[in-house]
Specification:
The protein is built from 8 helices and 7 strands; from the N terminus they run E-H-E-H-E-H-E-H-E-H-E-H-H-H-E. Helix 3 packs parallel to helix 4. Bound molecules: nicotinamide-adenine-dinucleotide. Nicotinamide-adenine-dinucleotide binds next to helix 1 and helix 6.
Length: 255
Amino acid sequence: MNNERRVVVTAAASGIGLAVAKAFAANGDRVYICDINEKALREATEGNPSITATVCDVSDRSSIEAFVEAAAAALGGIDVLVNNAGISGPTSPVEEMDPDQWEAVLGVNLTGTFNVTRLAIPLLRRSDAGVVIIMSSLGGRFAYPDRSPYAVTKRGLIALTETLAAELGDAGVRVNAIAPGAVEGDRIRRVLQGRADASGRSLGEVTADALSLQSIKRFVDPNDIAALALFLASDSAKSITGQTIAIDGGSKAAV
Ligand SMILES: NC(=O)c1ccc[n+]([C@@H]2O[C@H](COP(=O)([O-])OP(=O)(O)OC[C@H]3O[C@@H](n4cnc5c(N)ncnc54)[C@H](O)[C@@H]3O)[C@@H](O)[C@H]2O)c1
Protein backbone atom coordinates (compact mmCIF):
# COMPACT_ATOMS: atom_id res chain seq x y z
CA MET A 1 0.00 0.00 0.00
CA ASN A 2 1.09 3.56 -0.65
CA ASN A 3 1.79 5.57 2.48
CA GLU A 4 0.40 8.86 3.71
CA ARG A 5 -2.09 9.51 0.97
CA ARG A 6 -4.38 12.50 1.43
CA VAL A 7 -7.89 11.08 1.62
CA VAL A 8 -11.24 12.89 1.70
CA VAL A 9 -14.43 11.06 2.68
CA THR A 10 -17.87 12.71 2.69
CA ALA A 11 -20.58 11.98 5.26
CA ALA A 12 -18.15 9.96 7.34
CA ALA A 13 -19.18 10.62 10.94
CA SER A 14 -20.93 7.26 11.04
CA GLY A 15 -21.86 4.19 9.03
CA ILE A 16 -19.95 3.11 5.92
CA GLY A 17 -18.12 6.44 5.63
CA LEU A 18 -16.66 6.12 9.12
CA ALA A 19 -15.56 2.53 8.43
CA VAL A 20 -13.87 3.77 5.23
CA ALA A 21 -12.19 6.71 7.00
CA LYS A 22 -10.88 4.44 9.77
CA ALA A 23 -9.57 1.89 7.26
CA PHE A 24 -7.54 4.53 5.39
CA ALA A 25 -6.27 5.97 8.70
CA ALA A 26 -5.22 2.48 9.85
CA ASN A 27 -3.38 2.12 6.54
CA GLY A 28 -1.22 5.14 7.41
CA ASP A 29 -3.09 7.73 5.33
CA ARG A 30 -4.24 11.17 6.46
CA VAL A 31 -8.00 11.51 6.25
CA TYR A 32 -10.28 14.55 6.16
CA ILE A 33 -13.98 13.94 6.56
CA CYS A 34 -17.20 15.93 6.64
CA ASP A 35 -20.68 15.34 7.91
CA ILE A 36 -23.85 17.33 8.53
CA ASN A 37 -23.96 16.05 12.14
CA GLU A 38 -21.50 18.06 14.22
CA LYS A 39 -21.80 15.94 17.37
CA ALA A 40 -21.23 12.67 15.49
CA LEU A 41 -18.29 14.28 13.70
CA ARG A 42 -16.69 15.21 17.04
CA GLU A 43 -17.16 11.66 18.33
CA ALA A 44 -15.72 10.21 15.10
CA THR A 45 -12.51 12.24 15.24
CA GLU A 46 -11.89 11.87 19.01
CA GLY A 47 -9.08 9.38 19.53
CA ASN A 48 -8.32 9.27 15.79
CA PRO A 49 -5.52 11.84 15.30
CA SER A 50 -5.11 11.02 11.61
CA ILE A 51 -8.78 11.90 10.95
CA THR A 52 -9.70 15.60 10.90
CA ALA A 53 -13.04 17.07 9.97
CA THR A 54 -15.39 19.91 9.25
CA VAL A 55 -19.16 20.22 9.17
CA CYS A 56 -20.60 20.24 5.65
CA ASP A 57 -24.02 19.73 4.13
CA VAL A 58 -23.34 18.17 0.73
CA SER A 59 -26.65 19.46 -0.60
CA ASP A 60 -25.36 23.03 -0.14
CA ARG A 61 -22.95 24.34 -2.73
CA SER A 62 -21.28 26.98 -0.57
CA SER A 63 -20.87 24.47 2.26
CA ILE A 64 -19.12 22.11 -0.19
CA GLU A 65 -16.85 24.88 -1.45
CA ALA A 66 -15.72 25.62 2.11
CA PHE A 67 -15.26 21.89 2.83
CA VAL A 68 -13.13 21.09 -0.23
CA GLU A 69 -11.02 24.20 0.39
CA ALA A 70 -10.53 23.26 4.06
CA ALA A 71 -9.68 19.66 3.16
CA ALA A 72 -7.10 20.70 0.56
CA ALA A 73 -5.54 23.18 3.00
CA ALA A 74 -5.44 20.69 5.89
CA LEU A 75 -4.00 17.85 3.81
CA GLY A 76 -1.92 19.88 1.33
CA GLY A 77 -3.84 18.40 -1.62
CA ILE A 78 -6.11 15.45 -2.36
CA ASP A 79 -5.09 11.98 -3.62
CA VAL A 80 -8.25 10.01 -2.88
CA LEU A 81 -11.84 11.26 -2.83
CA VAL A 82 -14.52 8.94 -1.47
CA ASN A 83 -17.99 10.30 -2.30
CA ASN A 84 -19.93 8.44 0.35
CA ALA A 85 -22.76 10.88 1.13
CA GLY A 86 -26.19 9.56 0.28
CA ILE A 87 -29.64 9.57 1.87
CA SER A 88 -32.28 6.87 1.58
CA GLY A 89 -35.19 9.15 0.76
CA PRO A 90 -38.86 8.29 1.03
CA THR A 91 -40.58 4.94 0.49
CA SER A 92 -43.52 5.66 -1.80
CA PRO A 93 -44.71 4.95 -5.35
CA VAL A 94 -44.02 7.63 -7.97
CA GLU A 95 -47.60 8.89 -8.14
CA GLU A 96 -47.56 9.58 -4.40
CA MET A 97 -43.97 10.87 -4.23
CA ASP A 98 -43.55 14.32 -2.68
CA PRO A 99 -41.61 16.33 -5.32
CA ASP A 100 -39.75 18.20 -2.57
CA GLN A 101 -38.46 14.90 -1.21
CA TRP A 102 -37.47 13.85 -4.73
CA GLU A 103 -35.43 17.08 -5.04
CA ALA A 104 -33.86 16.55 -1.61
CA VAL A 105 -32.55 13.09 -2.52
CA LEU A 106 -31.20 14.32 -5.86
CA GLY A 107 -29.59 17.26 -4.06
CA VAL A 108 -27.55 15.09 -1.68
CA ASN A 109 -26.89 11.93 -3.67
CA LEU A 110 -26.35 13.20 -7.19
CA THR A 111 -25.77 16.96 -7.21
CA GLY A 112 -23.76 16.79 -3.97
CA THR A 113 -21.45 14.16 -5.43
CA PHE A 114 -21.14 16.17 -8.64
CA ASN A 115 -20.23 19.36 -6.75
CA VAL A 116 -17.68 17.74 -4.40
CA THR A 117 -16.01 15.93 -7.30
CA ARG A 118 -16.08 18.97 -9.59
CA LEU A 119 -14.13 21.00 -7.03
CA ALA A 120 -11.73 18.16 -6.14
CA ILE A 121 -10.72 17.38 -9.76
CA PRO A 122 -8.06 20.11 -10.12
CA LEU A 123 -6.42 18.77 -6.93
CA LEU A 124 -6.71 15.13 -8.04
CA ARG A 125 -5.07 16.01 -11.33
CA ARG A 126 -2.03 17.24 -9.37
CA SER A 127 -1.78 13.94 -7.44
CA ASP A 128 0.60 11.17 -8.55
CA ALA A 129 -2.22 8.64 -8.28
CA GLY A 130 -5.59 10.34 -8.05
CA VAL A 131 -8.54 8.14 -7.20
CA VAL A 132 -12.27 8.82 -6.96
CA ILE A 133 -14.62 6.31 -5.38
CA ILE A 134 -18.37 6.85 -5.59
CA MET A 135 -20.88 5.06 -3.38
CA SER A 136 -23.63 3.74 -5.63
CA SER A 137 -25.91 0.95 -4.46
CA LEU A 138 -27.63 -2.27 -5.32
CA GLY A 139 -30.63 0.05 -5.73
CA GLY A 140 -28.86 1.63 -8.71
CA ARG A 141 -28.41 -1.70 -10.53
CA PHE A 142 -31.94 -3.16 -10.36
CA ALA A 143 -35.48 -1.80 -10.45
CA TYR A 144 -36.34 -0.48 -7.00
CA PRO A 145 -40.11 -0.11 -6.53
CA ASP A 146 -41.19 2.68 -4.14
CA ARG A 147 -37.64 4.10 -4.00
CA SER A 148 -37.53 6.08 -7.26
CA PRO A 149 -35.32 9.02 -6.19
CA TYR A 150 -32.80 6.70 -4.53
CA ALA A 151 -32.72 4.33 -7.52
CA VAL A 152 -32.39 7.17 -10.01
CA THR A 153 -29.56 8.84 -8.12
CA LYS A 154 -27.65 5.62 -7.57
CA ARG A 155 -28.01 4.67 -11.27
CA GLY A 156 -27.00 8.25 -12.17
CA LEU A 157 -23.86 7.87 -10.08
CA ILE A 158 -22.85 4.87 -12.21
CA ALA A 159 -23.15 7.12 -15.29
CA LEU A 160 -21.14 9.82 -13.51
CA THR A 161 -18.47 7.25 -12.59
CA GLU A 162 -18.11 6.07 -16.20
CA THR A 163 -18.09 9.63 -17.53
CA LEU A 164 -15.47 10.81 -15.02
CA ALA A 165 -13.30 7.75 -15.72
CA ALA A 166 -13.31 8.62 -19.43
CA GLU A 167 -12.61 12.31 -18.76
CA LEU A 168 -9.81 11.77 -16.24
CA GLY A 169 -7.97 8.68 -17.50
CA ASP A 170 -5.41 10.79 -19.36
CA ALA A 171 -4.57 12.57 -16.12
CA GLY A 172 -3.97 9.23 -14.39
CA VAL A 173 -7.05 9.64 -12.20
CA ARG A 174 -9.09 6.44 -11.74
CA VAL A 175 -12.80 6.55 -10.94
CA ASN A 176 -14.83 3.56 -9.72
CA ALA A 177 -18.14 3.02 -7.98
CA ILE A 178 -18.95 0.61 -5.17
CA ALA A 179 -22.48 -0.81 -5.15
CA PRO A 180 -23.18 -2.22 -1.70
CA GLY A 181 -26.18 -4.37 -1.00
CA ALA A 182 -28.03 -3.93 2.26
CA VAL A 183 -25.47 -3.14 4.93
CA GLU A 184 -25.84 -4.30 8.51
CA GLY A 185 -26.71 -1.29 10.68
CA ASP A 186 -29.32 1.33 11.56
CA ARG A 187 -29.92 2.43 7.99
CA ILE A 188 -31.17 -0.92 6.67
CA ARG A 189 -33.30 -1.30 9.79
CA ARG A 190 -34.89 2.10 9.01
CA VAL A 191 -35.45 1.14 5.35
CA LEU A 192 -37.00 -2.20 6.29
CA GLN A 193 -39.13 -0.56 8.98
CA GLY A 194 -40.36 1.95 6.36
CA ARG A 195 -41.28 -0.94 4.09
CA ALA A 196 -43.00 -2.78 6.92
CA ASP A 197 -44.99 0.33 7.84
CA ALA A 198 -45.96 0.93 4.19
CA SER A 199 -47.04 -2.66 3.58
CA GLY A 200 -48.58 -3.56 6.93
CA ARG A 201 -46.24 -6.56 7.32
CA SER A 202 -43.95 -7.22 10.30
CA LEU A 203 -40.27 -6.21 10.38
CA GLY A 204 -39.33 -9.91 10.65
CA GLU A 205 -41.27 -10.73 7.47
CA VAL A 206 -39.75 -7.95 5.36
CA THR A 207 -36.25 -8.86 6.67
CA ALA A 208 -36.70 -12.52 5.68
CA ASP A 209 -37.96 -11.39 2.25
CA ALA A 210 -34.91 -9.17 1.79
CA LEU A 211 -32.46 -11.96 2.65
CA SER A 212 -34.24 -14.39 0.31
CA LEU A 213 -32.97 -12.21 -2.60
CA GLN A 214 -29.32 -12.85 -1.66
CA SER A 215 -27.06 -15.90 -2.06
CA ILE A 216 -25.31 -15.13 1.24
CA LYS A 217 -27.93 -14.85 3.98
CA ARG A 218 -26.58 -11.91 5.93
CA PHE A 219 -26.33 -8.18 5.32
CA VAL A 220 -22.99 -6.68 4.25
CA ASP A 221 -20.30 -5.86 6.83
CA PRO A 222 -19.31 -2.16 6.43
CA ASN A 223 -15.68 -3.12 7.10
CA ASP A 224 -15.73 -5.24 3.92
CA ILE A 225 -16.80 -2.15 1.95
CA ALA A 226 -13.96 -0.21 3.56
CA ALA A 227 -11.52 -2.96 2.52
CA LEU A 228 -12.84 -2.75 -1.06
CA ALA A 229 -12.36 1.04 -1.08
CA LEU A 230 -8.80 0.57 0.18
CA PHE A 231 -8.13 -1.93 -2.62
CA LEU A 232 -9.65 0.33 -5.31
CA ALA A 233 -7.44 3.20 -4.10
CA SER A 234 -4.29 1.04 -4.10
CA ASP A 235 -1.72 0.39 -6.82
CA SER A 236 -3.09 -3.17 -7.08
CA ALA A 237 -6.14 -1.62 -8.78
CA LYS A 238 -4.09 0.58 -11.14
CA SER A 239 -5.76 -0.93 -14.25
CA ILE A 240 -9.31 -0.67 -12.90
CA THR A 241 -11.38 2.40 -13.81
CA GLY A 242 -14.95 3.17 -14.84
CA GLN A 243 -16.26 0.07 -13.03
CA THR A 244 -19.06 -0.50 -10.58
CA ILE A 245 -18.08 -3.20 -8.10
CA ALA A 246 -21.02 -4.93 -6.42
CA ILE A 247 -20.58 -6.06 -2.82
CA ASP A 248 -23.96 -7.52 -1.94
CA GLY A 249 -23.82 -11.19 -0.98
CA GLY A 250 -24.86 -12.16 -4.51
CA SER A 251 -28.11 -10.18 -4.61
CA LYS A 252 -30.51 -10.84 -7.48
CA ALA A 253 -32.70 -7.76 -6.92
CA ALA A 254 -32.72 -4.56 -4.89
CA VAL A 255 -33.34 -5.26 -1.22
N1 LIG B 1 -26.41 1.14 4.47
C1 LIG B 1 -26.79 0.50 3.37
O1 LIG B 1 -27.49 -0.52 3.43
C2 LIG B 1 -26.33 0.99 2.02
C3 LIG B 1 -26.49 0.14 0.91
C4 LIG B 1 -26.07 0.58 -0.34
C5 LIG B 1 -25.50 1.84 -0.47
N2 LIG B 1 -25.36 2.64 0.63
C6 LIG B 1 -24.78 3.97 0.42
O2 LIG B 1 -23.61 4.13 1.22
C7 LIG B 1 -23.50 5.48 1.67
C8 LIG B 1 -23.40 5.54 3.19
O3 LIG B 1 -24.50 4.86 3.73
P1 LIG B 1 -24.70 4.70 5.33
O4 LIG B 1 -25.70 3.62 5.49
O5 LIG B 1 -23.40 4.58 6.02
O6 LIG B 1 -25.37 6.12 5.65
P2 LIG B 1 -26.04 6.68 7.01
O7 LIG B 1 -27.51 6.83 6.79
O8 LIG B 1 -25.56 5.85 8.15
O9 LIG B 1 -25.42 8.15 7.06
C9 LIG B 1 -24.03 8.37 7.06
C10 LIG B 1 -23.76 9.81 7.42
O10 LIG B 1 -24.27 10.70 6.43
C11 LIG B 1 -24.49 11.93 7.07
N3 LIG B 1 -25.29 12.83 6.22
C12 LIG B 1 -26.61 12.75 5.92
N4 LIG B 1 -26.97 13.77 5.12
C13 LIG B 1 -25.85 14.51 4.89
C14 LIG B 1 -25.59 15.71 4.16
N5 LIG B 1 -26.56 16.35 3.49
N6 LIG B 1 -24.32 16.19 4.17
C15 LIG B 1 -23.34 15.57 4.84
N7 LIG B 1 -23.53 14.44 5.57
C16 LIG B 1 -24.77 13.93 5.59
C17 LIG B 1 -25.19 11.50 8.35
O11 LIG B 1 -25.15 12.52 9.34
C18 LIG B 1 -24.40 10.26 8.73
O12 LIG B 1 -23.36 10.54 9.68
C19 LIG B 1 -24.72 6.20 1.08
O13 LIG B 1 -24.38 6.82 -0.14
C20 LIG B 1 -25.71 5.08 0.84
O14 LIG B 1 -26.65 5.39 -0.16
C21 LIG B 1 -25.76 2.24 1.85
